[in-house]
Amino acid sequence: MGAKQRHEVELDEGPDDEGGDDPFDDEPDDDAPGGRGVPGHGAPQAGRARRWTSRRRLLGGVGAVAVVGLLLVGAQLVVDSGERARLAALAGLPGVVHDLAAPPRLTPDDLRDAGEPVVEQELVADDGTGPRVVLRASQDVVRLDGDDPDGSPGWTVVLWAAGDPPAEDTDGWVPFQPSCVPTPDDASIVTCLIGDGAVSLDGDGTDVPQTWARLLAVDVVDGATRYERDLDLPAPARLQGAGGVLVGGTRVPDGDDGDPVDVVTAFDAATGAERWVARVPVPDVLDGYVGQAELAVTPDVVAVRGTAEVTVLSTADGTVLRGPDGARLDGVLASPGRPDDAELLVLGTGTGASARTTLWSPDGEVVVGGQAVVPSVDDGSADGLVLTTQDGDLHGWERDGTPRWRAPGVDGESGMVVDGRVVVMVGTTLRCVDGDSGRVLWEVPVDEGMLLSLTDGRRVVLQQAGWVSSQVDGATATELVAVDLADGDEAWRTTLAGVGWVDVVGGRLLAFADDGAVLTFGADGRPVR
Fold first, then answer.
1. How far apart are the C-alpha atoms of 214 and 192, rounded to whole Å?
2. Is 187 strand, coil or helix?
3. What is residue 473's three-state secondary structure?
């Protein structure tokens, strides 16, 4: 936002009859010495017209000021409305907290009274008219809750509880968490994927295969089951939703040779019926590590990342739009743009001077120089800007590969795009550049070991994780620093003793303590009970 404007209003103290008679003055003129309205020094001047004119000029001046004041208030209301709309559009993006005006604060009692560790994921926000739907997960139970608008408990659907299958050695696996998503094109239901699979802890990332899996559609108003559908195996481990479908993947051995393959399945969002299945080979397993299927899902495309290559499928029918070409692609990003823009995938390969970045869309692809800088938050305000870094310079590219700008000496390993500004960080330097021109807006030094982590649209938050510091001096404490997005000034700084990491889930700030406790903070910076 720009600076508030100051308006100066000059009130005319000249003769009332300048420029013509006042049509509203039905009092006789008074030309007595001492001027009109306010008498000169000495005895008060007689005359009713003088007193009337004085009052009328005063009222006129007040009226002018009032009109200007109303205009300023109206303009500020428009600005405030636009700011609220901008911040509302940020809600729901990963890494975005509702409000970071107040620093989070903890006392030892807060940690002692944290109770059972519970992680929350907001699926349907509280709009004042219906339940707030939250996925709550602890060591003993995973449940879907519909909290009433006043915050009191409403309905609950238990998705998993301790003792549920699989009945494997509990020291050797971690069960799949139920995966729930807002249903694309139908805000009245939330869809969950449940099953009995698990992740092995033997170091190679192999899954314990599921023996059953099920889609469960839950009504957001009363928690009633809309539909329940058993899935064919192998079934996905988690869901993502876009373009009227629910998509998930799982990595399994394929055929007699046992080479891994990603089985990607799309389901109709309204009914849960299977739309399509694609089997994507996973070449070049790294040092025996099999890993799990990684997908980037958009309304038009599904990008399937193997260990070193990317395959792009059509969201509509699963056909291959881009197959592996031998290039070792180490990342994939679905880049937001203007509403009418085609899908764009940013595929990165290599590091250093030889790094290249491929910009792929259904219309074709182009290769640009540099290593992709993947923003942890991108609100689309920079019109689909793509960032790369090469030889210590930051490059901004249009979606078609046309250079937009180059910022010499502005290196970056991590970044965010918020409100038309690009914030990048490398080492102990945090910089902000204009998304349109690449002009450096501000640059500030930061403490060593800080990570660019969160934003609320007005500030960005850096954190030095307590789990890292505990490896150095044995004391777990997470330090947070909030930096104003407008000018780089430090907004606040705080240290959370006993906290190993701070993250955001569903727009809420969460602190993960070293004893397993999880605390959720409100807008006032205090833990929510």
1. 8
2. coil
3. helix
Beta bridge partners of 241: 246
What letter represents residue 345's amino acid? L
In the beta sheet, which residues pair with residue 310? 305
Structure tokens at 186: 């139908």
DSSP secondary structure string, 276-322? Answer: EEEEEE----BTTB----EEEE-SSEEEEE-SS-EEEEETTT--EEE
**Res. 273: pLDDT tops 80:** yes
In 10 A of CB 354, how many CB atoms?
10
Amino acid at 435: G
Q: For residue 275, name the pLDDT band (cuts at 50, 70, 90).
A: very high
In the numeric block, which tokens belong to residue 157?
A: 């659907």
Cα separation values, 72 from 7, 59, 101, 152, Å: 9, 20, 25, 41
* pTM greater than the 0.70 cutoff: yes
When the pLDDT of each residue in the chain is averaged and rounded to a whole number, the result is 77
Whose CA is closest to 385, among 357, 354, 355? 357
The whole-angstrom separation of Cα 255 and Cα 263 is 13
Q: By C-alpha distance, which of 293, 302, 312, 257 is closest to 275?
A: 302
Burial 43-60 (b: 16+ CB within 10 A, else e): eebebebbbbbeebbeee
Among 480, 477, 445, CA closest to 460: 480
Residue 477 phi/psi, 5° resolution?
A: -155, 130
> What local confidence, expressed as pLDDT, does residue 203 receive?
56
Average pLDDT of the residues in 175-190: 88
| Whole-number Å distance between alpha carbons of 447 and 311 | 40
Q: Identify the CA nearest to 14 among candidates 63, 69, 61.
A: 61
d(CA 427, CA 407): 17
